[in-house]
Design goal:
The structure is a homodimer. In chain A, about 25% of the residues lie in helices and about 35% in strands. In chain A, the strands form four sheets. A six-stranded mixed β-sheet of chain A has the order 6-5-9-10-11-12, with helices on both faces. In chain A, strands 1-2 form a two-stranded antiparallel sheet. Chain A has a two-stranded antiparallel ribbon with strand order 3-4. Chain A is globular, with a radius of gyration of 16 Å.
Chain lengths: ~190, ~190
C-alpha cells in the first residue's frame, strides 16, 4: 500500500536497524485517515474470506482492526488482553506470546464465550515480526475450534521470520507494507500492488 | 444515548452492585456499529469545541475515541500507554492513575512531542467512575501547556464521584450513558436527550 510505505519512509524511525518506530501515525498517535484507508484496503482484500469476526491483540492493532471490521460490514471485533483483569469472571482462553521488542513472555486472553466453533476469524495486527503475536492469536482461535481465514498486517518485517511460520500453517498472510530489509538506516520494501 | 442505555440493560453484567461488565460490546468484544454511532454522537456534541486532537488511554476507550476522531474530521488520535515500552527513546509526559477496578497505581505516558502548547484536546474514554483516568489525562494535557476542551465518556457511574472532580476543574463532561445508581442488581440512568 503505497501511502503506508511512503509514510514509513517519511516518518518512521529506525533504531539500530532492528526496531522500527511508527509512533507518530500508527502507535501512540494514530493517523485516523490513514488507518481508515488501511481498514478499507484490508476489507477489500479479505472481502471473500467469509470472516465472521475480527481478532486483534491490545493495543496498537486495535484502530486498524476496528476500521477493517467496520468496512467488512460491522463485524464484531474481539481483542485479546495481555493480562487478566480481576473484573473477569469468565473462563478464558489463553496463549503465550513472547514479545520481540520487550523480551518478555505475555499471556494473552479472551473470554471463551467470544470465540466459538464454526466462527471464521480474521486476524488483524499492526506489526508482524517474529510472528509470536499472530501465532498466539491463532492458538486462541484453534483452542476455540474456530477457523482462521487470514492474517492482515499493517507493517511486516519479513526478515524476522513471522510470515514463514504463519504460511507453514497454511495461512494467507497479507501485509500493507512488506519490509524485506532494514540496514544502515535504510528500509527496503517488497512492493505489491 | 438511548441505544447504549438499552444495550447496557440488555447485555451489561452487574457484579456486587459495584462493577459493570460490558465485555460483550464495549470491552473485549466491540460492537463496531454501536461504537461508530457513539463516535458520531460525540462528534456532534463536541463539534464546536474547536478540538484539534483526541486523547484516550489504552485500551478499551480506543475504538470509541477512534470513531470520534474520525467524525470530527480525521483529527489525530493520541493514546496514553500504561507502562513505558523499551522502544521509546523520547521524553515522555507521565501521570499517575489509580485504577478503580484493579486497585493498583499505573503510570500513564505519552511522548512529549505529541502534546504541545496551544493544542485543544478532547478526552474520550469508555468509563468514568472515580475520574482517576480522566484526571491523569488532564494532567498530561496541562503538563504540555495544552487545553482540555471537554471529556466525553461512553458509560459514566456518577455515584463514584468522577464527574464532580472533573467539573470542579471547569471541564465539560458528557456521558452517553449516565448511571446514577447500581443497586440490588438494578441500574438507573439519568436520561438525557
Amino acid at each position: 500500500m503505497k501511502i503506508l510505505e511512503e509514510r514509513i519512509l517519511k516518518d518512521g524511525l529506525l533504531i539500530e536497524d532492528r526496531i522500527l518506530k511508527v509512533d507518530s501515525f500508527l502507535n501512540f498517535q494514530i493517523d485516523v485517515e490513514l488507518t481508515d484507508q488501511m481498514g478499507r484496503e484490508f476489507a477489500r482484500i479479505f472481502r471473500e474470506s467469509g470472516a465472521t469476526k475480527v481478532l486483534t491483540v491490545e493495543t496498537s492493532g486495535l484502530p486498524v482492526a476496528y476500521a477493517t471490521a467496520k468496512y467488512l460490514g460491522d463485524l464484531p471485533l474481539l481483542f485479546a488482553k495481555k493480562n487478566k483483569p480481576n473484573t473477569n469472571i469468565d473462563d478464558d482462553l489463553a496463549a503465550e506470546v513472547k514479545s520481540f521488542t520487550k523480551e518478555v513472555v505475555n499471556l494473552i486472553r479472551v473470554p471463551k464465550k467470544y470465540l466459538n466453533p464454526g466462527e471464521r476469524v480474521l486476524i488483524i495486527d499492526d506489526f508482524l515480526a517474529s510472528g509470536a503475536a499472530s501465532l498466539g492469536l491463532l492458538d486462541l482461535i484453534e483452542q476455540a475450534g474456530a477457523t482462521c481465514v487470514g492474517v492482515g498486517i499493517a507493517v511486516e518485517k519479513e526478515f524476522q521470520g513471522g510470515r514463514a511460520l504463519l504460511e507453514a500453517k497454511g495461512l494467507r498472510v497479507v501485509s500493507l507494507a512488506h519490509i524485506t530489509k532494514m540496514k544502515d538506516g535504510q528500509i527496503e520494501f517488497h512492493y505489491t500492488e
